[in-house]
Design brief:
The protein is of the alpha/beta class. Helices cover about 35% and strands about 20% of the residues. The strands form 5 sheets. A 9-stranded mixed β-sheet has the order 3-6-2-1-9-11-12-10-13, with helices on both faces. A hairpin with a 3-residue loop joins strand 7 and strand 8 (about 160).
Length: about 600
């Protein structure tokens, strides 16, 4: 598929836009950015583009105000506003960095880059103008835009702040001006309650509220100016907690209380604690309210000794003791892990894994076990790592369908082909890849296309419902690529890439391959470097959808695995409000 094959994108086919707001109640310190990035990634997986509006870290605004007073006395408000806004700028940059680490294409924008203006007093202004065209241009190249939520430009003062709770107002303003269907305010509580839950633990939570009732019921929780702006623009506000599967919707709707949702931690077995497993473990430890962790299975417990709050074991029976409700398999290898996962699923435990080899070879058995046990098996990280290709395929299946997929889906191949282009000998390039951690001690899976074939096999099953063994996928080997061939491609303005491809033919047959192709430099797959994965998907209406992300590495892959874990947690513990609002189900979550 070439870029000029793409049909014009109809308005209804554009990604939905969601505005998420994160205030200082959830941004308490530097360690919170990773969790907030995971919350944003949840929406990216659902096929949404996101404008993330962030406040300064907890206490930072007060500290800056105190500094302004200490240095300037009763300084001019406009000067104090210039100082105070730096906390917002810092937070936006940190948020974008956290998202980039897990492979999300994110950028941070300052008010002057967005034409964001306000009017009124320097320390309590109201937003009045936004260059929506400039913001949408940035969204065309990114999945997430991060913006400071407490400040704007001003015709007279130059820079102003928006008053206490101003980030709520910013979120509503962006939703209105950019045409977002809703704005989701992420708070330290999971909605608006009829009484303060701190005073009454049995207080009932509203499922829905009209704007006027919300203004009365949510004092101190939602900025009143934000509610007024949402009512005037008919913007739906959702009030939710981090990772929550429910929310309070503020809209033109009568008040309705939600049924109580008793919640207890899920018992979790984590099998494997290498680079990815350690990242998943960090996420699990950050949510003790949701997960109770069994002893973690590792080869050598002594190497992991000293990590607080975690027990390690080399015995599978200990790791799987106590009938865990969720098993996270990160051991690697095709057969033994499949046996463990199959037994867990048959016993009713849901499974999350990134093991493409086990899934490609034992797909039918694992899904049969999940059906027999009434459990779920989730494996978004198995193809593309942090690139949500399986979610995209699932979404398109419920619409126009999928006709073809092409992808650069192996980071080791990217690295080796780049070195060959530079004139390296093949063996030297492999040795360097091993030194840097891009290649395993036995590089055959990457070099000979077996890793990509496993992923193609899974994509064929997901896109077309056809069982195709990885052995049936035609493969080229990087061993056959000479430096001369690579240099020749470069001289012709092309780049050699290992491309996995699958296509559904009119007669219902499937063509699948892993080939070394010379791609024009303007091809959407040609620019993939190192661990980056890229995919282009052609749907049944002739449109081409391009995806970019990190296909390997501790944090991108851990983010995808933990996103599956959270999907399962919400599935087991109650309805997911994202899906209740009409978003497509996350992939890969199957029973």
């Amino acid at each position: 598929m070439k870029p000029d094959d793409q049909a014009p994108e109809a308005e209804e086919d554009k990604p939905k836009l969601c505005v998420l707001k994160f205030g200082s109640s959830v941004l308490g310190g530097l360690g919170d950015y990773a969790a907030v990035a995971q919350e944003v990634f949840r929406h990216v997986r659902e096929g949404e583009q996101v404008v993330a509006v962030v406040s300064a870290l907890a206490g930072e605004t007060d500290n800056l105000l105190a500094e302004a007073e200490a240095v300037g006395g009763e300084a001019a408000p406009a000067l104090a506003a210039r100082l105070v806004r730096t906390g917002e700028f810092r937070s936006a940059a940190l948020m974008a960095l956290a998202l980039s680490r897990i492979g999300v294409r994110a950028c941070a924008l300052d008010p002057h880059e967005m034409g964001l203006f306000a009017q009124g007093p320097a320390m309590d202004s109201d937003l009045c103008e936004l260059d929506a065209r400039a913001v949408k241009a940035k969204l065309a190249a990114h999945e997430v835009l991060v913006v400071p939520g407490f400040t704007a430009c001003h015709a007279e003062h130059g820079a102003v702040t928006l008053g206490r709770g101003g980030t709520d107002l910013s979120a509503v303003f962006f939703a209105e001006k950019l045409g977002a269907e809703r704005v989701r305010l992420i708070k330290d509580v999971d909605g608006v309650y009829a009484e303060d839950p701190a005073d009454n633990p049995r207080a009932e939570r509203f499922a829905e509220l009209d704007y006027d009732r919300a203004a009365a019921a949510s004092k101190g929780l939602i900025q009143p100016k934000a509610i007024e702006a949402a009512k005037a623009a008919d913007v739906v506000i959702e009030v939710a907690a981090m990772g929550a599967g429910h929310c309070t919707r503020v809209a033109r709707a009568p008040a309705r209380l939600d049924a109580p949702r008793p919640q207890r931690p899920l018992r979790v077995a984590l099998l494997g604690c290498g680079a990815v497993g350690a990242g998943v473990l960090a996420h699990l430890k950050s949510r003790p309210d949701l997960f109770e962790l069994n002893p973690v299975l590792v080869r050598d417990p002594e190497k992991h000794a000293g990590k607080p709050g975690v027990t390690f074991t080399s015995r599978p029976d200990r790791a799987l003791s106590g009938r865990p409700e969720l098993v996270i398999e990160l051991m690697g290898g095709p057969d033994y892990p499949a046996t463990v996962m199959e037994a867990a699923l048959q016993a009713g435990a849901s499974v999350a894994t990134a093991n493409k080899a086990a899934l490609a070879r034992h797909h039918a058995a694992l899904h049969a076990a999940a059906r027999a046990g009434g459990a779920h098996v989730a494996y978004s990280a198995a193809v593309g790592g942090g690139t949500p290709i399986l979610e995209t395929v699932e979404r398109l299946k419920s619409g126009p369908g999928v006709v073809a997929v092409e992808g650069v889906m192996n980071g080791t191949a990217n690295f080796l082909l780049d070195r060959l282009k530079e004139g390296w000998a093949f063996d030297d390039a492999v040795k360097k890849a091993q030194e840097l951690g891009f290649a395993e001690a036995d590089p055959a899976a990457d070099v000979d296309g077996h890793d990509a074939a496993d992923k193609v096999s899974l994509l064929v099953k997901e896109a077309f419902g056809v069982s195709l063994s990885p052995r049936e996928v035609a493969k080229d080997s990087l061993r056959d690529v000479s430096p001369e061939r690579s240099k020749k491609a470069a001289a012709e303005g092309k780049a050699l890439k290992q491309v996995g491809r699958l296509e559904l033919k009119p007669d219902g047959s499937v063509e699948a391959s892993v080939r070394i192709l010379a791609l024009p430099l303007d091809h959407p797959l040609a620019g993939a470097r190192n661990e980056e994965n890229r995919f282009v998907v052609r749907d049944g209406a002739g449109r081409v959808h391009a995806l970019f992300g990190k296909g390997a590495g501790r944090w991108p892959t851990a983010a995808a695995v933990f996103a599956d874990v959270m999907d399962i947690q919400r599935k087991l513990c109650g309805a997911d409000s994202l899906k209740l609002q009409g978003a497509a189900p996350a992939r890969r979550l199957s029973a």
